[in-house]
Design goal:
By secondary structure, this protein is an alpha+beta fold. 15% of the residues lie in helices and 32% in strands. A hairpin with a 2-residue loop joins strand 23 and strand 24. Helix 3 packs parallel to helix 7 and helix 7 runs parallel beside helix 8. The chain starts with 44 loop residues before the first strand and ends with a strand.
């Protein structure tokens, strides 16, 4: 995954302005209300330090002729130091929810350091009762350059768990001088909320209740048009940059909405498409989160104008259950300011509806997750025995008969996760803990991802150089040790190359500041960028690991190499703001390709003329200036765009040839430096037939996909759907992956997840493990995993290492996957893709043979045929009729081991060694060959797994894994449950599972123990003998995610 892109995101509380723009008039606030001591600096110095501002000298001086009083405070650096003043203030987040920070500031020749944060700044940092920092890294700046006195002010949300404010100001690793005067921290007065404004925080007094995705520089700024704050978004280059909010709205009650706002814009240029402007628009959504009612626009404009009021009204579709509002810049450069945004809803009789409140789960019966150990050791959930340590003992991974095999003939399959960014460069103790945790829970593969990410500190590059051509020896040592610890435990390494590299001046890349992060487009064809990719690959892969005592290219524990992450030329229509330099180069290559294909303009004109005489080649076009086709995705077309099918078809073929040429060149080079394992090209999350075919020229195909991926950014300020995948099988993960498994090629999933804050993400592990076996996939890696210890609070959208309800399922899922407890379907249904499917109009994520449920029933794959006579498109109706009951919303796999009841939202596994169900099982009897389960928890995942490899009918040792929902303490949703009002705090709360379980077999004795997360026995659970077996009950009061069952 491209962290911080899809698109690039900075959490707005931490967003920085690219340039200084402040008001010179300041409201007067009483110093008597100032929580700071000596914020005016008029109390003088004590041992060369301003009174109340620290105890050690930090290059600070009192200067005469203050902006407000007699003096002001200046911090000066002649060299790049951390010269910071600070003051601690008692501040209880239970009583004070918001503060304002204001001051006068001026700068003199501040030259930033090497990192983006190395500038002048003010940061109000919050700490809990244990002096642990909470609430991220809020800031009032940063500032650089030179400017005279300006007044700055910003509101900040105080975390509920905060007990102390540490107020820090100064120069962060930069040179120059920063001056401050009249710094004030005041409690923000709570304004009376308009109950009829359905938008929360529409006056933008603070950053709260909004999600944001897009260019850096968007956020709340002061002063507002009619208050302290407003929303401002700046696009230096075209980008999708919007603040958004999701609002509950019942179309059965609300018939009309009215939107009004004050806004102004500056320098907004019209984009190539009519909708590419500054915009305030809405989207109505139904109960399934699907967009309905078109694309209503409340306001849209280009150019520049001063403040004015806009208002518009819209009819509400009856099926609507919510409305999402978007404010920002639609793929255009410029600046937009918005204030006092309001939405009113009206019933049929004209009366107004009031804004709904917030939703908080009743967690009174849940328990605190406070593990004393991070992983099991020689206890029931410890499934490290499934790993065949050390990794590499069977020789290099090779491709044979459409699958991975080790050199000694052993089948190679991989179940694991991703470690990415700065987590690849941890200390030795953490590396050991991470490796041990993963091994004990059954992971046998880790993808090393985002080594080159510009946003990771540290990353793999040496900061002492103004380029990305020198690897940091200290970070390489940490990476070496982590990989060594993983390999010695039987965990194989999936190595990524180009992911999120941002070039620097010393790289000698033309227009390097405009090259897309990770060179997602230009990386396929620009010679300098390709050469830099090769250099990096050689530096990394021929590096000698002193711990494993071999180079990576000589390490059989490295199972595969990925060339470029989440990239394809066929996605170019979605990429705005690309460098004109590289677009011009692409156009040149395109014209050369046309000339090589057609030879003369006349032949090209003939080929681009249809049977009705309509021409795609324009009269003023000739080799050298022929424009590439738009190649729009299906969702982009919608009545807009160029309909030049012949131009588009050739453009698709050009992209295909260019992409294949790049892949083959990189493959040849990697082999030349000694790479001996399978290689793949890329792994996009959008399935486009031409891209899949291009990737199939290498050793295997790799894809990415997520359920309820965060929208409009990452972190906690995002929008999500909070739907269960089990109720929407057409869009589910397994079948969407299965659509593009290629015949005679291994298939790898290097990223998948059901993402936080979705409540139902516990449904993921067993579903994915089961279908990985039914489809006989070769590798499945969840994104992602952090840390040697359990996280204490959940904030990351992807980190399963902090989700007890997900990671606790890893032992059962790993056993199911590696033992192939779910049988592979004996049938293979292949769809043949024809040239018109490859080079015709893009139909992204097109279902297999038009039937999205087919891969949930049987094994599927695609092939590539030159014509209809070569095609293999079997009749699938008999299969669907036998296994899919649309009227009952129910299907079974053709192996008979899997059932998917999407009407009730329940997925069941019934194999010899793994049995159980996940979903909305409360009040439902889950009946399998050897079990009867009667859950009373609304949504849960409950599976019983044999631990001695025997069928459950004879097994003597079994593991019950029972998980439900988890939340942070104090986690609060908006009323629509599509945004977080409060992410909450530690500890994590776990909903226990309540159920009766009947083991249908005769035994002489049975003993059941409730276990903690490390597998240690908490208590013995009573067992009752029945006529048809033994029965026991599990309860949330046991505070257990695992139960050990021993029978004789």
């Amino acid at each position: 995954m491209n962290k911080l892109t899809k698109p690039t995101l900075i959490i707005l509380a931490l967003v920085v302005a690219a340039s200084v723009s402040f008001s010179f008039s300041a409201p007067v606030e009483s110093a008597n209300n100032n929580l700071l001591k000596n914020g005016s600096f008029e109390e003088g110095l004590k041992e060369k330090i301003p009174v109340s501002w620290g105890t050690e000298f930090y290059n600070g001086y009192l200067m005469e002729d203050g902006k407000v009083g007699d003096v002001f405070f200046q911090i000066r650096n002649e060299k790049s130091d951390m010269s910071l003043g600070a003051q601690k203030i008692p501040l209880d987040g239970r009583d004070i929810r918001r503060i304002n920070v204001s001051c006068w500031v001026k700068a003199d020749n501040i030259i930033p350091g090497k990192e983006a944060w190395q500038k002048a700044n003010i940061q109000p940092l919050f700490f809990d009762e244990n002096d642990k920092q909470v609430g991220g890294w809020p800031q009032l700046g940063p500032w650089d350059g030179t400017f005279d006195w300006v007044f700055v002010k910003k509101g900040f949300k105080v975390p509920a768990e905060a007990r102390t404010l540490k107020f820090v100001l100064g120069l962060y690793g930069c040179t120059g001088a920063i001056s401050f005067d009249d710094i004030q921290v005041t409690v923000q007065e709570q304004k009376q909320v308009d109950p009829y404004n359905l938008i929360s925080n529409g006056d933008f007094e603070i950053w709260e209740d909004w999600a944001y995705g897009g260019a850096e520089g968007g956020g709340v700024f002061s002063p507002g048009y009619r208050g302290d704050g407003l929303l401002r978004i700046i696009n230096e280059i075209p980008a999708w940059s919007f603040a958004s909010q999701s609002i509950p709205l019942d179309g059965n009650e609300v018939r009309k909405i009215k939107i009004e706002a004050f806004w102004k814009i500056q320098g907004v240029a019209q984009g190539a498409k009519p909708w590419q402007q500054a915009r305030i628009n809405i989207e109505f959504k139904d109960e399934n989160g699907k967009q309905i009612g078109g694309w209503p626009v409340a306001a849209s404009a280009v150019g520049s104008f001063d403040w004015k009021k806009v208002e518009n009204s819209f009819e509400v579709p009856k099926e609507a259950k919510r409305v999402d509002i978007f404010v920002g810049l639609m793929e255009v450069p410029g600046t937009i300011w918005v204030d006092d945004l309001k939405m009113e809803g009206f019933r049929a009789d004209g009366s107004r509806v009031t804004r709904k409140g917030y939703f908080q789960t009743d967690t009174s019966s849940w328990y605190e997750f406070a593990p004393k150990k991070a992983y099991p050791v020689n206890t029931a959930p410890d499934v490290s025995f499934i790993l065949d340590a050390p990794a590499g003992k069977h020789g290099y991974v090779k491709v044979k008969d459409g699958h991975f095999y080790f050199e000694d003939g052993t089948r190679a399959r991989f179940w694991g996760t991703n470690i990415y960014g700065l987590d690849c460069f941890v200390d030795h103790k953490t590396a050991e803990q991470m490796a041990e945790r993963l091994a004990r829970f059954g992971c046998n593969a880790v993808r090393i991802h985002h080594l080159d990410a510009y946003w990771a500190d540290p990353n793999i590059f040496d900061k002492n150089y103004n380029d990305t051509q020198h690897l940091d020896p200290d970070q390489m040592e940490k990476l070496d040790y982590l990989i060594y610890q993983l390999e010695k435990r039987g965990i194989y390494i999936f190595m990524d190359l180009l992911v999120h590299r941002r070039f620097k001046e010393g790289d000698e890349v033309v227009d390097y500041e405009r090259v897309e992060d990770g060179a997602k487009i230009s990386g396929f064809y620009n010679r300098r960028i390709i050469d830099l990719q090769k250099k990096y690959a050689k530096q990394l892969l021929t590096h000698y690991n002193p711990y494993s005592k071999r180079r990576y290219v000589d390490d059989p524990a490295m199972c595969t190499v990925k060339i470029i992450n989440e990239s394809m030329l066929f996605y170019i229509s979605t990429q705005v703001g690309l460098s004109p330099v590289y677009l011009k180069e692409l156009d040149g290559l395109w014209n050369d390709w046309l000339k090589n294909k057609y030879g003369t303009r006349a032949k090209l004109d003939e080929a681009w003329t249809d049977k009705y005489g309509r021409k795609d080649l324009h009269a003023d076009e000739d080799f050298g200036n022929i424009v590439r086709g738009e190649t729009l995705l299906k969702f982009q077309r919608g009545g807009f765009g160029n309909l030049e099918k012949m131009r588009d078809s050739d453009t698709m073929a050009f992209y295909y040839d260019l992409q294949v040429k790049y892949y083959k060149e990189m493959e040849s080079y990697l082999k030349s430096i000694g790479v001996k394992v399978p290689m793949s090209g890329s792994n996009h999350w959008i399935n486009i037939a031409a891209d899949v075919k291009a990737n199939a020229v290498l050793d295997y195909v790799d894809r990415h996909r997520y359920w309820d991926h965060p929208k409009y950014g990452y972190g906690i300020n995002i929008v999500f759907e909070d739907q269960s995948m089990l109720k929407y099988p057409n869009e589910a993960l397994p079948n969407n992956f299965a659509f593009y498994r290629v015949a005679n090629k291994p298939f790898f999933i290097s990223e998948w997840n059901c993402c936080f804050p979705n409540e139902y993400r516990a449904e993921g592990p067993m579903v994915m493990a089961a279908y990985s076996n039914l489809q006989d996939w070769d590798g499945v890696l969840l994104f992602s995993f952090k840390g040697g210890e359990w996280g204490t609070v959940m904030q990351d959208n992807f980190d399963m290492g902090s989700w007890p309800n997900v990671f606790a399922q890893w032992p059962a899922a790993s056993l199911l996957f590696h033992r192939k407890d779910v049988a592979t379907s004996k049938r293979v249904v292949e769809e043949s893709l024809l040239p018109q499917d490859i080079y015709g109009p893009i139909r992204e994520d097109n279902p297999m043979l038009g039937e999205p449920l087919l891969p949930l029933v049987t094994r599927t794959q695609v092939g590539f045929a030159g014509s209809l006579t070569d095609a293999k498109n079997p009749d699938i109706e008999p299969i669907l009729e036998k296994y899919v009951k649309e009227d009952k919303k129910y299907l079974t796999s053709d192996t008979g081991e899997l059932t998917w009841d999407w009407g009730r939202g329940i997925f069941k596994i019934d194999t010899n060694r793994t049995q159980g169900a996940v979903g909305f099982t409360s009040g439902q009897a889950i009946v399998t060959k050897n079990l009867e389960i009667f859950p009373s928890t609304d949504f849960s995942s409950l599976f019983i797994t044999s631990l001695d490899n025997q069928p459950l009918s004879t097994a003597k040792k079994m593991l019950v894994t029972a998980t439900a929902k988890v939340e942070n303490t104090g986690e609060i949703f908006n009323a629509a449950k599509t945004q977080l009002k409060e992410v909450g705090r530690a500890p994590i709360l776990v909903e226990g599972v309540n159920a009766k379980i009947l083991l249908k077999r005769k035994v002489s004795s049975a003993t059941v123990y409730a276990l903690n997360i490390a597998g240690q026995r908490i208590k013995q659970v009573p067992v009752t003998r029945k006529s048809n077996g033994v029965e026991f009950s599990i309860s949330g009061t046991n505070k257990a995610l695992f139960y050990e069952v021993l029978v004789k």
